[in-house]
Design brief:
The chain is built from 6 helices and 11 strands. The chain is an alpha/beta fold and about 220 residues long. It has one domain: 3-Layer(aba) Sandwich (Rossmann fold). The strands form 2 sheets. The chain has an 8-stranded mixed beta sheet with strand order 3-2-1-4-5-6-7-11, with helices on both faces. Strands 8-9-10 form a 3-stranded antiparallel beta sheet. Strand 4, helix 4 and strand 5 form a beta-alpha-beta unit.
Length: about 220
């Protein structure tokens, strides 16, 4: 059976990209990372791709006159790899409606909160400020609504309010490295599907996100 093809979009250090590279090496991904694309040059995620012999591209958003022209170029490169799945791994661009529709049902994102809590930025700070008992991370399908696509799975962190924000961020990142490749592997083995009326996992509609136990 041919490996399913995965393209990973990054904007920074690529720690979640590394989690995918590691999962693939351990035969836990059930797919192959065939390309990495960054909207910023000189980020460490590109070094990770190079070390793993994965083709890497830079599409600098600042070099394009509009969001749509950037998205068009991004889509063109992605389509050249004929991916089964596109992973947003710390990709800090809001994607246009046309782009999302082009890859509808094939786009996954990870967000550092227990969605629908805290879409957008500064999630750790907000969770601590509100004295939440639990914080964590969510993997969801991407739709036109920012951080608003249907949530597939979550992993939780019990907050200790002596922790500072940077410590929480580090703990959540570690959990993400477990969560994200696992959810992607479900998609790549045809266990996961987005339909108009929601997410289906093992042929059953998800009424609540799957909760992954942290290892």
């Amino acid at each position: 059976m041919t490996d399913k093809r995965v393209v990973v979009l990054i904007s920074g250090s690529g720690s979640n990209l590394q989690a995918f590279i590691d999962a693939e090496k351990l035969n836990k991904l059930n797919g192959k990372v065939v390309a990495v694309i960054s909207n910023k040059p000189n980020v460490f995620g590109l070094v990770r791709a190079q070390k793993a012999n994965i083709p890497a591209h830079v599409v600098e958003h600042t070099q394009f006159p509009t969001r749509n022209t950037f998205d068009d170029k991004l889509a063109e490169i992605i389509q050249s790899y004929q991916p089964d799945l596109i992973i947003l791994a710390g990709f800090m661009r809001i994607l246009s409606e046309t782009f999302v529709q082009t890859f509808n049902g094939k786009l996954l994102n990870i967000h550092p909160s227990l969605l629908p809590k805290y879409p957008g930025l500064h999630t750790h700070q907000r969770a601590l400020a509100n004295k939440d008992t639990y914080h964590g991370s969510s993997v969801h399908f991407v739709t036109e609504e920012l951080d608003g696509g249907p949530v597939i799975a979550q992993i939780k962190l019990k907050l200790n309010h002596t922790n500072d924000e940077s410590e929480v961020m580090q703990q959540v990142q570690q959990l993400e490295h477990q969560l994200y490749p696992e959810v992607a592997s479900w998609f790549l083995t045809n266990r996961l599907l987005m339909k108009d009326n929601g997410v289906y996992f093992d042929n059953k509609k998800l009424e609540e996100p799957v909760i992954i136990e942290s290892k």
